[in-house]
Design a protein that fits this description.
CATH architecture: 3-Layer(aba) Sandwich
Number of domains: 1
CATH superfamily: Zn-dependent exopeptidases
Distance between the termini: 55 Å
Oligomer: single chain
Structural class: alpha/beta
Strand order of the largest sheet: 1-3-2-6-11-9-10
Strand content: 15-25%
CATH topology: Aminopeptidase
Length: about 260
Amino acid sequence: MDDPAYCLIAADEPPPLTVTNRDARSPFVVVTDHAGKYLPRRLQMLGLTRAECERHIAWDIGAGAVSTLIGAALDAVVIRQNYSRLAIDCNRRPGSETSIVELSELTIVPGNIGLGEAQVESRVQEIFRPYHDRIANELNRRLQAARPAALIAMHSFTPVFNAVARPWHVGVLYNRDPRLATKLIGLLRREPGLVVGDNEPYSVSDASDYTIPVHGEQRDLLHVAIEIRQDLIADEAGQRRWADLLARLLPQTCQ
């Protein structure tokens, strides 16, 4: 039923986002669009099994943990989205075909089929909007205080997609403005043994992304999206290795 009073998140469920290092002094603002995998109880796991809701189709495995560690190392604010992208993708424009998916890779998502307007709007207003409002508020606060800001969007990607193995250890993504990305690619390629993707395995575009185009490009901020292969950050040791590496290299990109 398309109930205009439809409410998605119960009072005892997690907030839509988590912020750490609120008063951080670093210019870096680290955001993670797909950090969480929580689904509101009202969605009844979208008709999926628990195993499906643990897979990469539900969240960016390891990305939230790496972001938090980078924030601690650099004294950077970190804004992480807590809900599964299967409820709504916080890196897609609301209303787009991939904002609330009915099919993710080969997995049908029954709970996303035939949604009413109020059901869709509740996901936008209760999950998507608070997250992006918080990013905007953080960037506005820095602008008003004449403090520099560089937007780092952290993601992770699956090692195999459509039965094709991906050789990259990390991908550096950008669209119209390659300033920060170009420097980071150069630094990463000096690291022994790393296979670094230049806009691989994805690239940033207005159609496929929201966070970088809206918060980075439209504000003319230094920005980059970083994709780390999930098998490299699936455990704490890997998460710390990659956080240490990026915490060492990112400050050099702003020099």
